[in-house]
Every structure is written in C-alpha cells, then in structure tokens.
Amino acid sequence: MNGDSSSVSWLNSAIKPLDTMTMYAALNHQEQLTKPPGSLGKLEHVAIRLAAMQGALFPTADNVSIAIFAADHGIAEEGVSLFPQSVTAEMVKNFSHGGAAICVAARFLNAPMTVYNLGTVSPIEGLANVVNCEIAPQTASFLHQPAMTEAQLAQAINIGRQAVLSSLDKQAGQGETLDLFIAGEMGIANTTSATAIAAVLLNTVPEKLAGPGTGLDAQGVSRKATIIAQALKTHEKALADIEKDPLMALQLLGGFEISALTGAYLACAQEGVPAVVDGFICTVAALVACRINPKVSDWLILSHSSAEPGYRLVLDGFATQQPLLNLELRLGEGSGAAIAVPLIRLACSLHNEMFTFTEAAVSSSTVKANIDDVAL
C-alpha cells in the first residue's frame, strides 16, 4: 500500500454532488407506495438518500466493504484506559483470526474486511487480512507535545483514502459497484483522543464529553477529563485557529487510526461512496471531515447512537443527520455500522419492491381519507 506520501492536496478535491433529480424521483416514488406518506420514517429517508447518492431510483446495499484501522496512543501512559496497550495488537490478531464482533458481522453481511495496522506498541507481523502500514509504534502523548508530526498525519490520512480506493478497485474487478463503505477502529485510549478533538471542534469543556470508554468508573472518567483539559491548555495557542485548519486537531490530539478514518470519509465523499458511520470515535472523525468540507455530510449515514455520553454533543455537529438505531452500543470496531446494514438493505427492499397505488389497484385518496378519519 502506498500510504507514505506526504501530500494531502487531494483533500481539496471536489465532493461528488448528490443526484437531486433522482432524489426527488425517489421521494415521489415513496409517496406513491401503498402506505401512508412518511409512515416508514427513517427507512424512507435512508432509501431516498441512497437513491440520490447512487443516482438510481432503486438503490441497493448489497456490496459492502469494511476497513478497520488500528493504532496505539501515547496518551495511554497517563492512565486514561483500563486496559494496557498490548490489547490493541491482541485485538488485531483477533480480527485476523475472525473472532471479534465485527468479524461475525462481516461474515453475516458477506462483506470483505481488511485491517490496517498503522502502528502498535506490540509488533504485528504476517497476519491474514492485515495490512501493515506502520507509521510509528504509537502517537506521542498529547499531554506534553503534538500527537504526531505533519508528515505522520499525512501518512495516516492517505492510508484511509487508499483503503477506500482499494475497496473500489476490488469491487470493480468483480464487475460490481461498492454500495456501502464501513470504517471501524481499534486503539487503547482512543476515546480520550476523540474526546479531546470533539472538545476543540465543539468548543466544549472535556467534562461534558468524557465518558467511560472501555469501562472507567466515575473517578477514572474525571481523571480522563482532567488530562484532556490540561492537554488543551498545553496546545491552546496552536488550536486558536482550529476553524481555519481542522487538521490541526488531528495532528495535536488525534490518533493514527482516527486520522485514517477522517481520510476515508473524505475519500468516500469524493468518490461517491456512501459511508456508514459507527459510534463515538468514528463520528468524531466524520465531524473533522465535515469541518474540512461540509459537503462530506451528504455521503454519511450515521448508524447508531453510541452509549458514550459525549456522543449526543458530537451529534449536534451534524445539523440534519440522526442515527438510525439506538441499541446502547459502545463497542467500536465498526460493529454498530455493520449492524445497521440489514436495516439499510430492508429500507432499499421496501422502497424498490412495494406496490404503488396504481399497481395494487388501491385508491390513494381512500387511504388518505381513512388516515384523516383516524387522526380525528
């Protein structure tokens, strides 16, 4: 994989526009189906959005690709996680062996999955379906210094882009299109990094965002918030112009895998690939991508409402987006995004296969009259 380029000039490339003509045609089609208008709620919305993304009146969600980005964080040395950094490498091995939740979901969806190792403290070599593209064993502790150099940030962002392009190439090689892209993450202490980034982008104090992550108690959460607040003070001057340069949040506070996620979401929007966004960490990365180019939001489908307390505040950064599900998930790995795929597929089937009033020989005016009677 060529993920070591220092150029990120592609970030300025145009986002593929939605097909608004098809969107309105899909909306009109929904209004002709044998049901009260709007009665399928978010399922209607996701089908209409997919139609606009794919430029097809009858959208599909059959071909799904999953990429998991893994990396270790120097901030872990501050005791912000219950688990040691060795768990990151152990979970990468678990991904490779097919034993993690996302692996089960990938098999269920018949979706190819690739793991990208961007740098772990414990070495990883020779694992099936794991692409080793190590930037460094871990980021620096952002409590004292920038998490990564500008060159390292560029590497991480480019790895995310290459994951999307590779998925597109594989599908094209099979004569297929890529209907949905899912990105997941693994990295001990990455909720701390994501919380710090969110605090900066949302101009919110860490105490309102910090949560238990992998299971911290109240004292642990308080310590995490304190560490983040101290780090923000350390980088206060460099973060002053964050609105002009959102990438600075990643360089100063981010993780390699969070940066790769950001690159992947931007690449999806440029290439016209719908991206299903997982929970807290992935949504923070998506928020960074949207701050770089607000039109990225057009290509995102928020999958589920994370149980991490800060998620609701992060969601406020997406003006018109709401997650499809609320299952109290907080696992990460892209698992929540994968769980949402069967629902997205069902939304497509309902949109594509239901009869219209004309096809079913049912009077739409009668149905609407009956609805009015019930409303009264």
Can you walk through the features of this model?
This protein has 376 residues and is an alpha/beta fold. The protein has a single domain (61-341), classed as Rossmann fold (3-Layer(aba) Sandwich), CATH 3.40.50.10210. 49% of the residues are buried. α2 crosses α12, α6 packs across α7 (218-234) and α9 crosses α10. The chain has helices at residues 20-32, 42-54, 86-97, 101-109, 150-173, 190-201, 218-234, 247-253, 256-271, 280-292, 311-315, 335-353, 357-360, 364-375, and strands at residues 64-70, 113-117, 130-132, 180-186, 275-277, 300-302. It contains 14 helices and six strands. 47% of the residues lie in helices and 7% in strands.
Task: Give the gist of this structure.
By secondary structure, the chain is of the alpha/beta class. It has helices at residues 20-32, 42-54, 86-97, 101-109, 150-173, 190-201, 218-234, 247-253, 256-271, 280-292, 311-315, 335-353, 357-360, 364-375, and strands spanning 64-70, 113-117, 130-132, 180-186, 275-277, 300-302. α6 (190-201) packs across α7 (218-234) and α6 packs parallel to α10 (280-292).
**Annotated CATH topology:** Rossmann fold
pLDDT averaged residue by residue: 93
What letter string, H or E per element, gives the SSE order? HHEHHEEHEHHHHEHEHHHH
Query: How many strand segments?
Result: 6
The secondary-structure class comes to alpha/beta
Main sheet: which strands, in order across? 3-2-1-4-5-6
Mind telling me the C-alpha Rg? Answer: 21 Å
Number of helices: 14
